[in-house]
Amino acid sequence: MFWYNGQLIEGETLVLNVSDPGLIYGATVFTTVRVYDQSLDHPLTHWGCHCDRLSQSLERFGWLFPDWQRLKEGAEKLSIHYPVLRVVVFADGREWITGRNLPPNLRERQQQGIMGWVAEDKLFQRSLADHKTGNYLGAWLALEKARQFGAGEAILIDSQGNWLETSTGNLWGWKGGSWWTPVLDESILPGIQRSAIINRLKSQDIFVEENLWTPDFIEELEVIAYSNCVVEIIPFTVILSQKRKLTFNAFHPALKQLRINTFKN
């Protein structure tokens, strides 16, 4: 089932006009919500932050806002059945919400880590990277290519080879007793989980710094992980690139600082 334009629809088929800009150009904005305890009001769900993300993009593009009450109604109905919601808004304000389950191997990935792959071709760059639009082709292609190498996530880079983010989340690195994350610019999505982690670390007087992830800086990191609202925190064990293979300890004790008192599995 899914929710579209004020209606809960049983089935898997959405009917759109052949000239719909959302279909032709990917002219939509979206956010992916993990709903905790089937409640949009749960503090870890961050429902208000997800709505703010949609609002900021819609305002920037000059698009119409949805009926927020109706959008929340649809999300509440689907959250009874699904722990993960993809909330989409079209340029004319129509809302479209779909649901899915958590990845079946999520706990294993959180605990044991995954392999990553560096997407070094400009083919994999994201369009309007500081917004979540329906045109997510670059990131999708990067993740599909990573899977061909047996990796579970792709790392996107800029034209100078600096690391930006993963195909689905934000990067975290540990060295010298501190956490580091790539500095935000128009090439990086301001992740909701990223903001929550930064705020919590600072509230506990744990040093966290935003900086440019150059190739030299990456060589110094003891731990690399990524975050998003669905998977929470997943560490990397190995990261492959054309020139090198980096290995990391997925059981490093510093990872507890990202997880403790933050996530509920």
From TrEMBL:
Q: Quote the Gene3D superfamilies the UniProt record gives.
A: 3.30.470.10, D-amino Acid Aminotransferase, subunit A, domain 2
A single BP term in Gene Ontology? carboxylic acid biosynthetic process
Q: Which Pfam families match?
A: Aminotran_4
One Gene Ontology cellular component: cytosol
Q: Molecular function terms in GO for this entry?
A: transaminase activity
Q: Which UniProt keywords apply?
A: Aminotransferase, Transferase
Signal recorded as keyword:
no
Question: What family does the Swiss-Prot or TrEMBL record give for this protein?
Answer: Belongs to the class-IV pyridoxal-phosphate-dependent aminotransferase family.
Descriptive protein name? Aminotransferase class IV
Q: Which organism is it from?
A: Gloeothece citriformis (strain PCC 7424) (Cyanothece sp. (strain PCC 7424))
Its taxonomic path starts at: Bacteria, Bacillati, Cyanobacteriota, Cyanophyceae, Oscillatoriophycideae
